[in-house]
Structures are given as structure tokens and as C-alpha cells.
Prior knowledge:
Elements: H1 2-21, H2 34-50, H3 58-76, H4 80-83, H5 86-104, H6 112-132
Amino acid sequence: xxxxxxxxxxxxxxxxxxxxxxxxxxxxxxxxxxxxxxxxxxxxxxxxxxxxxxxxxxxxxxxxxxxxxxxxxxxxxxxxxxxxxxxxxxxxxxxxxxxxxxxxxxxxxxxxxxxxxxxxxxxxxxxxxxxxx
Length: 133
């Protein structure tokens, strides 16, 4: 009886861990619609990079952007249907530029040159989404 209970418990634990690992994102902010999710990410990034450094809402905007970036990357990076879209590749370029800055200079704000470049890439993503839809 004891071995049966321990095996049943182990099976339930494996099932719970397996199902938890299959979830696409942890925040629940993404809908699964690529176009809508990308536009939400663009808005989140735009808010996070345009707020002044002394704004008290900047930290919350950056935290929200990090969560959405993580969920977006985990949901769409292996999706073959979006991998070749110009909106996706341009979005990845913008995300890599921001990630590169924050990994090298975590305590410094984005330089104006990088902020301008990312804003231009976000506009290109929006234009590509309009063309692709």
C-alpha cells in the first residue's frame, strides 16, 4: 500500500511539473494572437524607454516590459510561422539592442542614440505588421 501511494504521488508530481512547464508564459498578458501581442510589446517598450528617469512610474513600466519581453520570447521564438516575418526579426533586433545595453550597463539609462534607434525599429515593426495583416 505504501509503495502504491508513493508511486501515485510521484506520478501526480510529474504530471503537475510537466503541465506547468508547457505553459507559454507566466504573466498571462499575451493572448496568443501574434499581431496583438507584438503591438502590446511595442507599447510596453515605448512606455518603458520614453519615461523620464526621475518618473516614479518608470520602474514599474520597466518591470512590466521585462515580463512581456520574456513571455513574448518564450512564446514566439520557436514558432516557425512567425520566424520569417520582418516584424518578428525587427522586434528581435530591438530587443537584443536593449538587452545588450542592460547586460553591459545595468545601472545606466538608455543613451539617446540607442533610444532613437529602438524607437525607429519599433516604428518599422508597426509598419511591417500593417503590411503583413
